[in-house]
Design goal:
UDP N-Acetylglucosamine Acyltransferase, domain 1, about 210 residues, six-stranded parallel β-sheet, eight-stranded mixed β-sheet, alpha/beta, globular
Length: about 210
């Protein structure tokens, strides 16, 4: 009975998603692949000739219905510098998080970005200690962010400019990522540090250590 009651909602949600994707295809600077699912209404703000690329099979979820956490705001994709880009790889799922690009944010394939994350490649303002009265008028610098394939970013995480997160790694909820994270590890904390390494990585390291040098 519950499945029957859910059926109309699912049909409506799919129709809404398809209609929204179709309308967004007309948006300047936005490139959307096939089989993209959009739940709720995301904020996609593209300025100054920037570009957002959403590849095949991506899910952008901006609704709390059926999601296991409480997200505080919809998905936000914001590019506001000349030639700034956001690229979201195939099969990636993003829930109620903000990607703000001054230069470049690239997310790989099959990544999971939980709710309330902030991924920002610019500082917003200069430190301006020599002229603090003018700080409010500055725009700050920026450094690209790269999140490789199969990365899982826990809820309420902040990823700061210039960071690269390696393939398959997991970032614990509430972390602040200030430096590069290697592949196949768990990192957590403020600032995020490696707290666990995948078993296969350890095995490979041990095998290399056992290999005699010629």
């Amino acid at each position: 009975m519950r499945r029957l009651l859910e059926l109309p909602r699912r049909i409506f949600a799919r129709a809404y998603s398809n209609a929204l994707v179709l309308s967004l295809r007309c948006k300047r600077g936005l490139h959307i692949g096939n089989r993209v699912t959009i739940k709720g209404l995301p904020i996609i703000d593209i300025r100054y000739g920037g570009k957002v690329v959403i590849q095949d099979g991506v899910t952008l979820n901006s609704t709390n219905y059926g999601y296991h956490l409480n997200m505080f705001a919809p998905v936000k994709l914001f590019v506001d510098r000349p030639r700034a880009t956001i690229i979201i790889g195939e099969g990636t799922r993003i829930h109620g998080s903000c990607l703000h690009s001054y230069a470049s944010i690239e997310i790989g394939k099959r990544c999971l970005v939980a709710a309330n994350c902030q991924i920002i490649d610019g500082s917003g303002h200069d430190l301006s200690f020599g002229d603090v009265e003018n700080r409010i008028n500055t725009k700050g610098d920026c450094h690209p962010i790269i999140i490789e394939d199969d990365v899982w970013i826990g809820a309420n995480t902040i990823v700061l400019p210039g960071v690269r997160i390696g393939k398959g790694s997991v970032i614990g909820a509430g972390s602040i990522v200030t430096k590069d994270i290697p592949p196949m590890v768990v990192a957590a904390g403020n600032p995020a540090k490696v707290i666990r390494v995948a078993a296969q990585v350890v095995e490979n390291m041990e095998k290399r250590a056992e290999t005699p040098l010629e």
